[in-house]
Design brief:
Length: 484
């Protein structure tokens, strides 16, 4: 008996390849992006590149050519289309072919195999596990969520009380080093379930990694080591914290794998969220009318959104790598090319095109890309929690201060040098405490020479677990060293 087999032949439509005469990234002359001009005024650099090349421009990043995506529409396309624009660094052709400079500093963070650098099903599975672990902290009515939110407010109050104890009812403060950084470290200690207070040196190491400093590699290793030790500790002593819940969500995680997940969460919580706090405070202090108007209307969430549009905490998002040849802007991007989507440039494009209804619309301000977009945007649970932290941190400052003004002109404030983040090194202010501020009342009933609360060794500031040891906070806030 003869069996006839019918084979259905599907007509295929292969993706288009770049025309042979179109320029390759490596063949184009590129100007270095990370220059002193970019440090001082990145906006003017973005505009010059846009006027020269259009929505996408070839640039040099520490000796490596890359595509910088400048326009809002094109940035959204890169962020949303995961099938074309890949996050896994193994798709980068220059890396695979060994053409990167030895110890290229911007690579260190990308070599950490972690959820945000996964693609496809691997990414979706890991993201679901993370969301499950974060969910108890997303809900402000759950015991974990309520306690974390209450702790953020309490930590903010304690830090401002400490400023008052050191400087008086009127004085000078650095709201970056003496408020935002210690606040986010205290929150991280609480959320991660750290057995000891995290130190300011961890923040510095995160900066070194993100900014591509000469010791980015060793800095990355130090933070990874600390997070791996934390994972091992919580495996043996689980608690009501994110680390323990991540292990509960995926028990197959090794200490090293969980350490990598905590590492990237520390980046987002301390650096990205911290930048959003400082940048929002700056927009209020520098007199941004729409930001101030939303604050005056008690719309703290809207205040944060408006500030993120003007001054996003992440200037340029993580690299993507073209999965195939594709046209973007005026160029053909080859498979394996590196692409950097610029949130800061995209926001400038958006504000220029739609300023008339962006400034006055509460809904349209949500178009900001501070949390990313598409499959790899910040997960909803983490996004809501980070938004709550920022709103609480900003709101508490203006609850306590009757007056605050910058002590440097805005154009003289020092910013960190780097591609990824637009973060202030310092945010110096002259302040006056409000008469009703709780920072004027001592936790234990004692008062300092100027009638300002002073924390005694037995006070809650000094002794409450997770709220930060008084000595550690003083070192963070006022520049002391271990052993002082």
């Amino acid at each position: 008996m003869v069996h006839t087999v019918c084979v259905l032949v599907m007509e295929t439509h292969p993706f288009a390849a770049a025309p042979p005469d179109s320029p390759t990234l490596e063949s184009l002359p590129v100007e270095p992006l990370l220059t002193s001009e970019f440090d001082v005024d990145p906006g003017s650099v973005y505009e010059r590149l846009r006027s020269t090349y259009g929505p996408v421009a070839p640039v040099g990043l520490m000796g490596v050519p890359a595509w910088l995506v400048l326009d809002y529409r094109e940035v959204l396309e890169v962020l949303r289309n995961e099938s074309v624009w890949r996050r896994d660094v193994r798709h980068w052709r220059a890396r695979a072919e060994g053409r990167l400079p030895r110890d290229w500093p911007l690579l260190a963070g990308y070599e950490v195999r972690q959820t945000m650098f996964f693609d496809g099903e691997e990414h979706r599975t890991a993201r679901l596990n993370y969301h499950s672990a974060m969910r108890p902290f997303q809900d402000g009515h759950s015991p974990e969520g309520w306690e974390l939110r209450a702790s953020v407010a309490r930590y903010a109050d304690e830090l401002i009380a400490m400023l008052a104890a050191e400087s008086g009812t009127t004085g000078h403060a650095d709201l970056a080093a003496q408020y935002t950084r210690p606040l986010l470290l205290m929150v991280t200690t609480k959320l991660f379930g750290c057995p000891v207070e995290l130190g300011d040196e961890m923040v510095m190491d995160l900066w070194r990694m993100l900014d591509g400093g000469p010791d980015a590699g060793p800095a990355t290793g130090r933070v990874l080591g600390a997070m791996t030790r934390l994972a091992a500790h919580r495996r043996s002593r689980p608690g009501e914290d994110l680390t323990s819940y991540m292990l509960l969500s995926d028990p197959t995680l090794s200490d090293e794998q969980l350490g990598r997940e905590l590492f990237m969460n520390a980046v987002h919580l301390n650096d990205i969220t911290g930048n959003m706090v400082c940048n929002t405070l700056l927009e209020v202090l520098r007199g941004n009318a729409t930001v101030r108007r939303s604050l005056a209307s008690m719309q703290i969430g809207e205040t944060v959104n408006r500030a993120a549009l003007v001054n996003p905490p992440t200037a340029n998002l993580c690299f993507r790598f073209a999965g195939r040849d594709v046209r973007l802007g005026n160029f053909w991007i080859r498979a394996g090319d590196i692409v950097s989507p610029s949130v800061a440039a995209a926001h400038r494009d958006l504000l220029a095109a739609q300023s008339s209804h962006l400034v006055d619309s509460a809904i349209s301000t949500r178009a900001h890309l501070g949390w990313g977009a598409g499959p790899h945007q910040c997960p909803s649970a983490a996004r809501e929690l980070a938004g709550t932290i920022v709103a609480t941190a900003v709101g508490r400052v203006f609850d306590h201060f009757a007056r605050a003004e910058l002590t440097l002109p805005p154009d003289q404030l020092p910013w960190r040098s780097g591609l990824m983040v637009r973060g202030l090194r310092v945010l110096p202010v002259r302040y006056e405490l409000s008469a009703h501020s709780s920072a004027l009342r001592a936790p234990g009933g004692g008062r300092g020479d100027e009638g300002v609360a002073v924390a005694s060794p037995a006070s809650p500031v000094a002794s409450r677990p997770g709220s930060g040891l008084l000595g550690a906070l003083r070192r963070l806030m006022f520049g002391g060293r271990k052993g002082d």
